[in-house]
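Example complex used in Figure S2.
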Amino acid sequence: SQKIEQNSEALNIQEGKTATLTCNYTNYSPAYLQWYRQDPGRGPVFLLLIRENEKEKRKERLKVTFDTTLKQSLFHITASQPADSATYLCALDRGYGGATNKLIFGTGTLLAVQP
Amino acid sequence: DAMVIQNPRYQVTQFGKPVTLSCSQTLNHNVMYWYQQKSSQAPKLLFHYYDKDFNNEADTPDNFQSRRPNTSFCFLDIRSPGLGDAAMYLCATSGGQGHQPQHFGDGTRLSIL
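Predicted assembly (228 residues):
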C-alpha cells in the first residue's frame, strides 16, 4: 500500500539555524509534491509545490527538493525563527490531470525553533 | 480577503445524533474537499466536489454525506455520529485546473458525548 513517512519525532533547533524536514514515500509515483504548514487548531496553509521534473524550488527562506529516484523530498527553512514553529505536512499529488488534484498527506513533522 | 470559512469552529453532539458542518468560500473555486483529521494524524480525504459532481473516496463510511447547493457552500452531514468520528473536519478548495494548491479553512472540531 502507499506510504508516506515524515520525521515522527519533533525537530528542535536553535534560532538562526537551518531546519531540514524529510518526506519519504513508497509504492507511489507522484507527479507533484506539496508542502503545507499547520498551526495548532488551524487548517493547513500552502507553502510550496514542486513537480517531478524539478529538482529544487525556492521561496524566500524556504527550499524544497524532490528526488524521484530516492522517493524523497527535503524541506529546508534557512535562518529559522521561533515564528517558524509549527507542524509541516508533505502531500503527494497523484497528478491525474484534469480538474482536480487529490492529495495524500503525511502525518507531519513538528518543528520547534528555540530562541 | 478571499477565504474559506468553516462554521462552527467547535461542535458538540450526542452519540447517534445527526450533525451538519458547513463551509463557505469566496474564492469562486470549482473544487471543494472535505478532510477528516484526528489528533497527530494526517488529514484524510473523505470526498470532493468538482462543481456539482460528487466524488466519494472508496473507504469513506456511508455515515458521511455531503451537499453542495451552490459554488460557495458545501456541507458535511454525519448521520449517526459514533465516538470514533470525533475529529477535526477540514474543508478545502482548489482552482479546478489540476495540481493547484489547496486552500483550507480552520476546521470544525467535533466532539461526541
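Chain A is about 0% helix and 55% strand. Chain A has a mean pLDDT of 90.
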